[in-house]
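Entry under discussion copied across for reference:
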Amino acid sequence: AQQHRVSGVAADLAGNKVARDDAGRTALHRDDVDHLDLGPQLHATETDLRRKLLANPTHSRGLAIHNTGIYDLAASEAIARLVDPGDTVVDGGANIGYMTLLAGQVTGIGGSVLAFEPHPALFSILRDNTESGYHVAGCARFELYQEALGPALGKAWLNIPEGFKCNDGLATLLPAKDSSANRCEVAVTTL
């Protein structure tokens, strides 16, 4: 499988060491890989998690975080109520890491979060967002895996539909409904 990577990612958001565009906005520059398109730039956005999070405000998830500081209130509330300090949490399809960071904050320093994200560009953003979260006092230990979760070890095709350009949560291992969907081969692991 061909490996793709996102370049220019912020080294440490907690220390405000971020890439900047010509207008001084926080930016993530990417390789020119159309089917892994995450938009021209990401912004470090304040969240209700007491930290900044890299997110693309032109995508549905990033727009919600940019406008409100939170993504998916119901799921966020469920994590806050169901996860206990010291728990181990599995985040399958971790995307950019919003729920990963929330779980890490709730489970605290005695807990851990196992985050799985097979999409190469999203994994890079997840890594940077969790590295910035690691320095927050009282946050859990993160274990990141650039793999999909499945019933058996192996490889699979991650299908990336056209709508991915607006909603980076649409990639799936399920067969593509649309023949124009792009795809990339990813590793699959089990719990």
About this structure: Confidence is low (pLDDT under 50) at residues 1-37. Strands lie at 43-46, 52-55, 88-92, 112-116, 141-145, 148-149, 154-160, 182-189. Residues 85 and 107 are 4 Å apart (CA to CA).
